[in-house]
Amino acid sequence: MSLVVQKYGGSSVASAGHIKNVAARIKRCADRGDRVVAVVSAMGDTTDELIALAHQVTDHPQEREMDVLLSTGETVSSALLVMALHAIGVDAISLSGGQAGMLTSAVHRNARIVSIDPKRLKREVERGRVVIVAGFQGHTEEQDVATIGRGGSDTTAVAFAAALNARCEIFTDVDGVYTADPRVVPDARKLKEITYEEMLELASKGAKVMAPRAVELGSVYNIPVYVASSFKDEVGTLIHGGVDMEGFNRVRGIAHDVDVAKITIRGVPDRPGVAAEIFQPLADAHFSVDTIVQNASEDKLTDLTFTLAKADMANALPHVQDIAKKIGAKDVVADERMGKVSIVGTGIQSAPGYAARMFATLSASGINIEIISTSEIRITCIVPEDRVPDAVRALHAAFELEKAEAAELTIQP
Ligand code: ADP
Ligand code: ASP
Ligand code: MG
Questions:
Q1: Atom 11 in ligand 1: which residue has the minimum CA distance?
Q2: pLDDT band (50, 70, 90) for residue 351
Q3: Is the CB of 97 under 6 A from ligand 2?
Q4: How confident is the model over 64-89, as a mean pLDDT?
Q5: Measured distance CA(262)–CA(113) in Å, rounded
Q6: 151 lines ligand 2 (CB under 6 A)
Q7: Is 135 in the pocket of ligand 2 (CB under 6 A)?
Q8: Which of 152, 256, 309, 360 could make an S-S bridge to 136, C-beta 3.0–4.6 Å?
């Protein structure tokens, strides 16, 4: 008998009918002899709706109370799923993240998982019960509920799989990881497998099929993560480590993100320590800054540009303006209508020409590149938001990602 941790995302539990479908799937696994722990997300767009509701009440909801509010989304789906399981004769129990043993830091809305003590969870599994865990949340030392960041149910599932030494399966509304978002590129191709490294780059640059922190945890604890559809019985994608894709010399996938805002501090005095003076206060205020570019200085003055999530822009801007004043910079300009497109593949590091091909492709489509950033296996261009879908399609075609790869391995979950 093997233990499996499954995760069902928001679209998979979006209605009573969807929840019954998930219950039936879990029953099939249990009938096959698996012991099942399932992590659930909030129904459909509940989390977004709860955030909007809070902002109708006040412009500045307290983070602790936001967590009390947001965690209810996952609580609702966990209880309903257990009811649906009972209705078809499956013994099951719902547990909040805290009850399931997840201890988190006290940084509300973006808490880190400190530890998992799965005693209670194991006891329930040993009683023969299916355990449904409310995703995205844990308890702090003070027993306050804390959420672990958007997409946190993926992270919850991988964390519990690691703590229980179980298999990990993420069920969602697509039947695997594709070469690009299939909603944007109709001929995107499903990958049979992908390395943690590549998936992490795709996820952190916007391929929301997996949360980046979940991929990171999978990699750290070496938990293969199988991504598949909760609607169809198709073979999905295995995210795993260890395979050196010898012979691969190409782009594996394209990620895009339209949630990008850009802030430029102009006329920054070019002296040692100035970057720390800018970014330390932003980090202290928990703003997550992405691409950073500093121009070559002219007359000891430079321009410094960075990107961040659109939702953070309104709150971050006053901080940045204060900082600019303190360091004696000229002014601050901001633009919320940015997006980014990234090509990712381990082949990029060993072969020249990918960057040039990417830039030439964007240029041929008349798309202006505002900022470029790279890692060993990724090249990202910041482009105007409204050109992102065109950019993704043009790059998918230019790198011929719709064509099957000769060296693709067949690893079954
Ligand atoms: P869930 O609600 O199950 O967590 P998400 O909406 O977070 O699901 O993630 C699934 C979505 O991710 C898909 O519907 C798809 O549009 C999007 N997506 C983006 N990039 C990719 C990709 N490379 N492969 C598959 N899906 C992707
Ligand atoms: N409901 C949370 C969110 O929308 C967590 C998740 O679905 O993973 O981000
Ligand atoms: Mg998700």
A1: 209
A2: confident
A3: no
A4: 98
A5: 30
A6: yes
A7: yes
A8: 152
Q: Calculate the CA dihedral of residues 14, 20, 22, 26 and round it to 10 degrees.
A: 160
Q: Rounded mean pLDDT of 401-409?
A: 71
Compute φ and ψ for 241, nearest 5 degrees.
-110, 180
Task: Give the single-character DSSP code of 345.
Answer: -
Tokens of 290: 């992405």
Provide mean pLDDT across the span 320-335.
Answer: 96
Percentage of the chain lying above the pLDDT 70 cut:
96
Three-state DSSP class for residue 133: strand
What mean pLDDT value characterizes the chain? Answer: 94
Please write the tens of the pLDDT for every residue from 103-120: 999 999 999 999 999 999
Burial 24-50 (b: 16+ CB within 10 A, else e): ebbbebbeeebbbbbbbbbbbebbeeb
Q: How far is CA 366 from CA 48, 334, 389, 390, in A?
A: 34, 23, 13, 10
**Which residues contact ligand 1 via a Cβ below 6 A?**
9-12, 41, 172-174, 177-178, 180-183, 207-209, 253
**Assessment of whether the complete model's pTM goes beyond 0.85:** yes
Based on C-alpha coordinates, what's the Rg of the chain?
22
**Alpha-carbon distances, residue 280 vs 5, 283, 285 (angstroms):** 38, 5, 9
Nearest 10 degrees: Cα torsion 234, 239, 243, 245: 70
Nearest atom in ligand 1 to 9's CA:
3
Q: How far apart are CA 14 and CA 21, in angstroms?
A: 11
Higher pLDDT, 164 or 249: 164
- CA 175 to ligand 1 centroid distance, Å: 9
Residue type at 14?
A
Ligand 1 centroid from CA 209, angstroms: 3
**Mean pLDDT across 72-98:** 98
Two tokens at 208? 């929301």
For residue 61, what are its two tokens?
Answer: 């909801």
Distance 171 CA to ligand 3 centre (A): 10
What's residue 248's pLDDT? Answer: 59
- Cα distance between residue 101 and residue 104, in whole Å: 10
* Alpha-carbon gap, residue 252 to 191, rounded angstroms: 9
Ligand 2 center–CA 156 separation, angstroms = 10
**Adjacency order of strands within the sheet including 137-139:** 113-116, 102-104, 137-139, 145-147
